[in-house]
Amino acid sequence: MRISEGVEWAAHCCLLLDWMGTGEPVSTARLAAGYGLPAAYLNKQLQPLVKAGILTSTAGKKGGFRLAKRLEDITLMDVLTAIEGPDEAFQCAEIRQHGVWADEPASVFRAPCAIDTAMRTAELEWRRALAAQTLAAIQANAELQAPGLRTQVQDWYARPRQ
After folding, report:
1. pLDDT digits 0-9 by tens, 1-38
2. Listed residue (135, 160, 140) closest to 150, CA to CA
């Protein structure tokens, strides 16, 4: 399974919006500058967060994005689902009903596929782990790893940009 870079970008931007602490909308260009990302593509990644109620957006010259929820109320699962959608990662195609077993009656396949069962169990555990990780906990960990990070972010974004 591969998770798109949009999930990483979106989670980082949520942290960034909180660190900035302005409460004012922050433009996509400004958010993108902090990570050296293409603004137009970042904007496309943040729109699903607005639809999911994680961010709000304001149009216009002084527009941009703001957090709609506290980081304590946003999980990694919320961000992943907003960007990637709610579909399960594993899709069983029931290949056991083809080839060698194509002539078997449907009754042989009443029990769920063992591989499907194992994959769904693993994915459920993975989703539970993501749902247990709030962005606030991740932010606290980041600040432990890099003391002064919040101040560094605020100072960088306070400087005028071209």
Report:
1. 688 899 999 999 999 999 998 888 999 999 999 899 99
2. 140
Domain 5-88+135-158 has CATH 1.10.3720.10: no
- Give pTM, 2 decimals: 0.87
Phi and psi for 63 in degrees, rounded to 5? -85, 180
Helix (H) or strand (E) holding 65: strand 64-67
**CB of 82 closer than 8 Å to CB of 6:** no
**In the chain, what are the domain boundaries?**
5-88+135-158
Residue at token pair 């600040």:
143
Task: Assess contact for 124 and 90: CB atoms under 8 A.
Answer: no
